[in-house]
């Protein structure tokens, strides 16, 4: 079986990251590895460099990893992790957190490559809810 693109959800809140993970894992029929980096290492609100790095390693099945940060320092910290580890086959998407995660997971489950998964996550910002 060909490896699929993995997803890393980076949020200031562990609960938000885990909630979105629960949703998208069901939509991806359990085929896509979705890892979270939510909150700080000691359980507070914030972001964790080591948490993001661990999540990247967990989600990497060989086809690359899409990183979806929520906002602010999660973007900055995720960017720093990717810069510090240039051998990591991962990209960060500028996408809405929930809608982007849904689009990315469904696209990854179809076997799409990392570039396509990232594009679909970013395009999710244009989907009308009404």
Number of helices: 5
Distance between the termini: 38 Å
Spatial sequence of strands, sheet with the most strands: 2-1-3-4
Structural class by sheet pairing and helices = alpha/beta
Mean pLDDT figure? 95
Uncertain segments are none
Q: Please give the number of β-strands.
A: 4
Assess the beta-strand content as a share of residues: 5-15%
Major sheet characteristics: 4 strands, parallel
Order of helices and strands: EHEHEHEHH
**Rough outline:** globular
Radius of gyration: 13 Å
Helical residues, percent: 40-55%
Fold blueprint:
Elements: E1 6-11, H1 14-27, E2 34-38, H2 49-59, E3 65-69, H3 73-84, E4 90-92, H4 97-109, H5 114-123
Parallel strand pairs: 1-2, 1-3, 3-4
Helix pairs in contact: 1-4, 4-5
Describe the structure.
This protein has 130 residues and is of the alpha/beta class. It has five helices and four strands; from the N terminus they run E-H-E-H-E-H-E-H-H. The protein has helices at 14-27, 49-59, 73-84, 97-109, 114-123, and strands spanning 6-11, 34-38, 65-69, 90-92. Strands 2-1-3-4 form a four-stranded parallel sheet, sandwiched between helices. Helix 1 links the parallel strand 1 (6-11) and strand 2. It is globular, with a radius of gyration of 13 Å. The model has no long low-confidence stretch (mean pLDDT 95).
């Amino acid at each position: 079986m060909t490896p699929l693109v993995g997803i890393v959800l980076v949020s200031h809140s562990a609960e938000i990251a885990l909630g979105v993970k629960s949703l998208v894992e069901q939509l991806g029929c359990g085929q896509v590895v979705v890892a979270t980096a939510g909150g700080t290492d000691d359980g507070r609100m914030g972001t964790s460099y080591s948490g993001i790095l661990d999540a990247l390693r967990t989600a990497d099945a060989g086809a690359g990893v899409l990183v979806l940060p929520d906002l602010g320092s999660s973007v900055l910290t995720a960017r720093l992790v990717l810069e510090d580890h240039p051998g990591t086959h991962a990209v960060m998407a500028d996408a809405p957190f929930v809608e982007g995660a849904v689009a990315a997971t469904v696209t990854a489950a179809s076997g799409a490559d990392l570039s396509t998964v990232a594009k679909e996550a970013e395009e999710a910002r244009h989907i009308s809810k009404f």
